[in-house]
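BUG-419 | component: ligand-complex export | severity: low

The export step for glutamic acid jobs runs without errors, but we want the raw record kept on the ticket for reference. Input record follows.
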Amino acid sequence: MQKIRTRLAPSPTGLLHVGNARAGIFNYLFAKKSGGEFILRIEDTDLERSRKEYEDDAKEALLWLGLSWDSFYRQSDRKEIYAEYIEKMLENGSAYVSKEVEGNSKEVIRFKNKGGPVKFDDIIRGQVEVDTEDLGDFVIAKDTQTPLYHLAAVLDDALMEISHVIRGEDHISNTPRQILIQQALGCPTPKYAHLPLILGEDRSKLSKRHGAEALSEYKKLGYPPEAMFNFLALLGWHPEDDREILSKEELVSEFSFARVQKGGAIFDKRKLDWISRGYIKKLSEGEIIENVAQFVPKEWEGGKMGKAAKLFRDRISKFSDFKEEAKFIFEPKDYEAGLLIWKNASKEDTKKHLEKVCELISSGGDIMVYAQKEGRGEVLWPLRVSLSGLKNSPGPLEIIEVLGSEESLNRIRHAISKL
Ligand code: GLU
């Protein structure tokens, strides 16, 4: 049996797209499930548009995601190989040099297309048949040294012994051309699996206006990589049961093309946030502190950080959220005195309740018992606002736990002085 070898082949002409990351995951899961190999190939034959920084971005973001490759190739390192095959094709007549415009010296290399139908059996889409007549003699190289995408990809897929080409559906129209080249070169045709398109929430093709498209942007926002991996694996695939939180190991063992859908997959950010919260909830206090460190000011470190990490663990969808959510803990927020007043309560009663709470904190009394008696809203609302300065925040007792009695008393006294 042929060894399973799959590849992700990004062109470094921009930051690695989440669609590429999703294709990478499916390639990885399928290869690992079958004990095969996953290859990363940088397709930088278009030297004008390719940038080293985008190659670096792709590698860094894929490693962050947990997609490590077994072999790495870069097409610009393989020029001699392509030149050799271009020469061969020119010799055996499967390609020819073509003058582009009469009287102009511009020349390209075209594939000698005999036309006729090309059939392939797509693992996801089923039988595909295309009449290749209309494709004409398409261009496969700029010159004898410079192959274009189709030729370089076909040669590499053959030389790297790629068994399965798993890529986005937007490439399905490229497949007939690539099969024609394979046939002309006597290369085997790999199996193809074209993955459903990724759509925005309005069901149009995912684009800039739907928000971040680059994998590295999700890294920057502080999503846990395991959550991103889990989320991307569910874009167009699901396990046999209805589990939605699956580890990488579980995904490897559950993956099957049989459950890849044909229709577009919606990139639902609320679902990403939901999955991400599931991962963040399980982290230890230390892990939260470590992960939020890059998003918060140095001055926040130590002191209240440990307790704050515990309090906000269940309230953030990504590590960068911590800065906004926990800000009032570290940097007291100014607010209007009116915010302290619960519904129709009076200023005097509000003041009285806050004074009583100060006494209770100092003497170790039970604030909840007092609040039950005097009215929860009447007591707990102004208390919570005096501690947070916010309309919405965690409950007052939880905040006191993080701030400690001394700072809590200071904040309450400040509130009393405002009234
Ligand atoms: N370089 C192509 C791209 O980034 C790869 C297509 C393929 O997987 O064959 O879209």
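Assignee comment: Attached the raw record above. The mean pLDDT is 96.
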